[in-house]
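$ ./design --mode recover --in tokens.txt
reading tokens...
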């Protein structure tokens, strides 16, 4: 029996211990992965639809604990919400707030204007919808309107107020978020009493 022990190859014992070490490392790796998957971090979630240029305050969000792993760095945390923050794009109700969708108010490049659409506004248009604004300038001596043209190719709806009056007089007032560079064109159309119509993007023929 001593002869058998003496003849045992040392590298065979080493391979056995290496195998045990690999099994131990594998089990430890699985536990680390499972543990990381269970780790959550607090981020902010919108409690309503927030449109571009709108202030973002603690009343507009709630804190939720989610397991995002490395992706969590891309979302706004409670500590990251400061005073004077605004949304730079539409943040949907229930959406986790991306850090890239928030900026300081000093960086705002949008503002809002109120228009009244003379054409019926589809029920699908609501806060957060992206629309076109069409304008038809009045003809001389009040003889109708010129052919309509696209005044704004893209604007975000901040609010919608649908008139519940008689069908013949019914119109819809909308607050639109627009680029500051386009405000002049909208105000000019309002001043000359152009006929304005709001059309959802994608509804063009």
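writing sequence...
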């Amino acid at each position: 029996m001593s002869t058998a022990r003496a003849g045992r190859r040392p590298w065979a014992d080493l391979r056995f211990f290496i195998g045990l070490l690999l099994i131990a490392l594998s089990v430890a790796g699985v536990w680390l992965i499972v543990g990381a998957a269970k780790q959550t971090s607090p981020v902010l979630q919108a409690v309503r639809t927030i449109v571009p240029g709108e202030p973002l305050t603690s009343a507009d969000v709630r804190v939720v604990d989610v397991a995002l792993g490395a992706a969590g760095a891309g979302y706004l945390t409670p500590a990251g919400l400061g005073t004077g923050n605004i949304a730079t794009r539409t943040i949907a109700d229930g959406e986790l707030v991306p850090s890239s969708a928030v900026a300081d108010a000093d960086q705002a490049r949008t503002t809002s204007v109120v228009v009244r659409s003379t054409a019926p506004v589809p029920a699908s248009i609501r806060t957060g919808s992206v629309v076109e604004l069409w304008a038809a300038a009045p003809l001389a001596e009040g003889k109708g309107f010129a052919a309509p043209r696209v005044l704004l190719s893209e604007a975000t709806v901040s609010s919608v107020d649908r008139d519940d009056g008689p069908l013949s007089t019914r119109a819809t007032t909308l607050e639109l978020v627009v680029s500051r560079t386009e405000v002049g064109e909208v105000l000019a159309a309002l001043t000359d009493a152009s006929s304005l119509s709001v059309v959802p993007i994608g509804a063009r023929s």
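exit 0
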